[in-house]
Amino acid sequence: MKKSHDIRRYPGFGTVTVLFFLWLYAPIAVVIWLSFNENRIVSVWTGFSLKWYRAALDNGPLLDAVRTSLIVAVVATAIATTVALMAAMVLSRNPTMRGAKLSETVVNLPLLLPEIVLAVATLILFSQLGLADGMTRLIVAHSTFCTPFAFLPIRARLQGMSTDYEEAAQDLYAKPLTAFRRVTLPLILPGVFSGAMLSFVISMDDFITSNMLATGGTTTLPVYFFSLIKKSASPELNAISTLLIVLSLVLASAALVLSMRAMRRDP
Amino acid sequence: MTRGKAVEVFKVSKSFGDYQALKEVSFTIHENEFFTLLGPSGCGKTTLLRMIAGFDIPSTGSISLFGTEIGTLPPHKRRVNTVFQSYALFPHMTLEQNIAFGLENLGWDKARRKARVAEMLELVHMTPFAKRKPAQLSGGQRQRIALARALAPEPQVLLLDEPLSALDLKLRQAMRDELRTLQRQTGITFIFVTHDQDEALDMSDRICVLGEGRIQQLGTPSEIYEEPENRFVADFIGATNFLDVEVLSVDGPRARVRTPMGIEIEAAQKGVSGPGKATLSLRPEKIGIEDQAAGEIIAGTVTARNYMGGFTHYTVETRGAVLRVSRRNALSQAESYAIGQQVRLGIVAGSARVLGQ
Amino acid sequence: MRRGFRFWGLVPAWVLMAVTLLAPLVIVALVSVAKRGAYGGFEWDFTLAPYRDILFTAGWSDELEFDPKYVLIIGRTVLLALITTAICMALALPVAYVIATRGPRAKALLIYLVTLPFWVSMIVRVYAWLIILGNDGFGGRLWQFLGGEGSLLFTPTAMLIGMVYSYIPLMVLPVFAAIEKLDPALLEAGADLYASRWTTARRVIVPLAWPGLAAGAILVFVPALGTVLEPMLLGGGKQITMGTLIQTQFGSARNWPFGAAIALVLMALVMGVLIVNALRAGHKREAEA
């Protein structure tokens, strides 16, 4: 009888886990694989071709959407990261101050609410304010829901960092701003980077809010992507998807690796 | 010798919420002094140091540095520097950059900075390591750089927050000597915080024993050890036998007491006003055993024996009290007393202290 | 830190959240009791009509008739979110257990692999399932091979597959964190006290992993309640949920007050779950203190 007596092992768990990871990556793999498919019909493989990438790169509206998404993502990331950095500095250094808990909840609020509610709320607000400029609408809304994604890694990094460094800097005659610039900021930079990258990815990927707020001239990439799906499942979609997947995976990996390495380096 | 006042702490109290960490503490530290704040954890010694550095603000009271009130100045406006317990060397800067950091903030020009950094590296024997980062150093080397960094801006007072606690035993001993030498060389006032009585006794000019947020005693190392003023100090510094005694008479600084062993002795007293109950503190090494027994002699039985290398500790049961006695192991094979053996103990009156309750 | 910065450092965050989040939520609440505009939008005129419309429709002669249509949509959304949560729990437990019992390097790598797909655009992930579950796709063919009727796409099952896929990392991570803290000696103690493996699992592992499962349940259930994309694409628009209902009211249906009312119901559900969870956590802390 070849039965394992290691009580920590459960028969079937290993199989479930292997299947789980296959299932997790299958959709991504399928889309990447089909993006090189020469056939017009999305899911029938007939041969290798790069023509859908060429088609995507020649697609004017698509490039416009990419441009819109990039501008929104860059500006929203800059705003969200700055706001989050300032809030994280105050909250991690004064955890017992009045309103600290409430402020932390408010910063993280976008994570707690369903995105559709948030999208509807901002839509009504903008219509009431008469704010019609699509780009401004998108940037403001994206800044809001990107803030917690920027906040969490920065906060974690600050919490893991001893206050001794800041005190040492001030002890050595650095004014508060100098101490921040020369000591605190360089030390939390990995956290700031991963926060910024995560909010960039979140902004680039957003569909629900952008779709609700989009006006004619300002279509983001996911919104444009959605309109293509609605029209027809063209293999060009696979090429665009692959590009989006690669972008997300690279940025998210960078963010995760950075924060992990930073965590390991510190005692 | 008259010396200037480096730091004056006057009626300083500090509360954190409901918890009172310090209660109206006052003392003066002289120029060029190696001053130690000694006490168990939670006694308020680190809080006191942090208030002198400017990281915490006193709830009430004042702190002066060379005659100038600094109680509410932010840390970067005080000419004091700190050696942190964790060293807090900036991990993203080289050793040179770490040492130069304070000088840059003080606005020293480049040539002067360079010379001072070189001088400091030389002082702590770390010149070859100038371009390294803190992560590439051993604990002892980090300690030296932390010292160099804090000394570089020529502070009026140097604060040291348990700087030796992260080092292993051998290194700690060597660093004690180095710190003492450095203090003499630089002539800067050192304020040293520790919970380690050996360090305090070894290095300090004066020691301030803190306990429960108050000063328990302030004095030279030998005063603290030989003439503890209360039970807290006698208990915290070194080992001692506490005996409940009855005061028969008080004559100024001396009192006559009856011990539980039945004998009467006369010893120096503190805090006793008249006949009544009191505590007698009797250091184990001040009790002679057998051939070393002198003064009042009592008889007892050895009930435990702990061989410690340089010393042997005996627990001796006498009529009325259990005494701990320690005997130095002499050059020749020391005499050893077995458990159960009858021994004679001698108490030298001059070495005992009578302390008020 | 200077007192000044303590205040000013938080100002941008508060302004941003107050203007773009808190104020809009108040406005949503106001709109949900406003009158529908003639050409979309709304007019400031107090009425409870939007909430009434959730339960009733006007019958032949304007008398109100109970209409379960929207109640059913709300119920179905909750049910869908519950099933999604349950499947995620069942799947995450063995996976998290296997990951947690690996060596430190393998553990870090596997957790990283669990997290990674989460960052791929939601719409791309849903689109991928659209292809796979289509009649020509691998999933669609498997469905037919297994004797499934009609096409798999545009069914509740397709939506569920997409939702579980979207939210599973949010379940695996907290469950993993809980199991990782579990002392292996406890399993040995279980075995030592004559428990079989499965008894140990039931009586030792699951109770100790419970805080992770509970946290994961919140993380999955809340976004699943508000899900929009899966019903729109994988449900083919036939499977209406609260999310898509809100979306339609602000889009083609042009009934903002009704959309706002549904949004408020959705938010009330979410807040209810969060509050119950917070109270439960508070109780527990008290019990342990």
From TrEMBL, chain A:
Annotated PANTHER family: PUTRESCINE TRANSPORT SYSTEM PERMEASE PROTEIN POTI (PTHR43848), SPERMIDINE_PUTRESCINE TRANSPORT SYSTEM PERMEASE PROTEIN POTC (PTHR43848:SF5)
Organism per entry: Paenirhodobacter enshiensis
This protein's name: Spermidine/putrescine transport system permease protein PotC
Function per UniProt: Required for the activity of the bacterial periplasmic transport system of putrescine and spermidine.
Family annotation (InterPro entries): Bact_Polyamine_Transport, MetI-like, MetI-like_sf
Transmembrane segments: 12-36, 70-91, 111-129, 183-202, 237-258
UniProt cross-references to Pfam families, sorted A to Z: BPD_transp_1 (PF00528)
UniProt subcellular location: Cell inner membrane; Cell membrane
Keywords for this protein: Cell inner membrane, Cell membrane, Membrane, Transmembrane, Transmembrane helix, Transport
CDD domains, sorted: TM_PBP2 (cd06261)
This protein's record includes keyword Cell membrane: yes
Membrane topology: Multi-pass membrane protein
Signal peptide residues on this chain, from the entry's feature table: none
Family recorded in the similarity comment: Belongs to the binding-protein-dependent transport system permease family. CysTW subfamily.
GO BP, sorted A to Z: transmembrane transport
Major subcellular location class: membrane
From TrEMBL, chain B:
GO molecular function, one term: ATP hydrolysis activity
Reactions catalysed, as given in the entry: ATP + H2O + polyamine-[polyamine-binding protein]Side 1 = ADP + phosphate + polyamineSide 2 + [polyamine-binding protein]Side 1
E.C. no: 7.6.2.11
One Pfam family it belongs to: TOBE_2
Source organism superkingdom: Bacteria
GO cellular component labels: ATP-binding cassette (ABC) transporter complex
Gene3D superfamilies reported for this sequence: 2.40.50.100, P-loop containing nucleotide triphosphate hydrolases (3.40.50.300)
InterPro entries referenced in this protein's UniProt entry, alphabetically: AAA+_ATPase, ABC_SmlMolc_Importer, ABC_transporter-like_ATP-bd, ABC_transporter-like_CS, Mo/tungstate-bd_C_term_dom, P-loop_NTPase, PotA-like, Transp-assoc_OB_typ2
Keyword field: ATP-binding, Cell membrane, Membrane, Nucleotide-binding, Translocase, Transport
GO biological process: putrescine transport
SUPFAM superfamilies membership: MOP-like (SSF50331), P-loop containing nucleoside triphosphate hydrolases (SSF52540)
All copies of domain ABC transporter, residue ranges: 7-237
Family: Belongs to the ABC transporter superfamily. Spermidine/putrescine importer (TC 3.A.1.11.1) family.
Subunit details: The complex is composed of two ATP-binding proteins (PotA), two transmembrane proteins (PotB and PotC) and a solute-binding protein (PotD).
PANTHER family found in the cross-reference section: SPERMIDINE/PUTRESCINE IMPORT ATP-BINDING PROTEIN POTA, SPERMIDINE_PUTRESCINE IMPORT ATP-BINDING PROTEIN POTA
Function according to Swiss-Prot or TrEMBL: Part of the ABC transporter complex PotABCD involved in spermidine/putrescine import. Responsible for energy coupling to the transport system.
Protein name: Spermidine/putrescine import ATP-binding protein PotA
Taxonomic lineage of the native organism: Bacteria, Pseudomonadati, Pseudomonadota, Alphaproteobacteria, Rhodobacterales
Encoding gene, per UniProt annotation: potA
Automatic annotation (TrEMBL), chain C:
Segments passing through the bilayer: 7-34, 70-97, 109-132, 152-179, 204-225, 258-279
Xref: SUPFAM superfamilies: MetI-like
Protein's UniProt keywords contain Transmembrane helix: yes
Family: Belongs to the binding-protein-dependent transport system permease family. CysTW subfamily.
Coiled-coil stretches: none
Keywords of the record: Cell membrane, Membrane, Transmembrane, Transmembrane helix, Transport
GO BP term, example: transmembrane transport
Subcellular location: Cell membrane
GO cellular component, one term: plasma membrane
Name of the featured protein: ABC transporter permease
Membrane topology of the entry: Multi-pass membrane protein
Domain (ABC transmembrane type-1): residue spans on this chain: 74-277
Presence of keyword Transport: yes
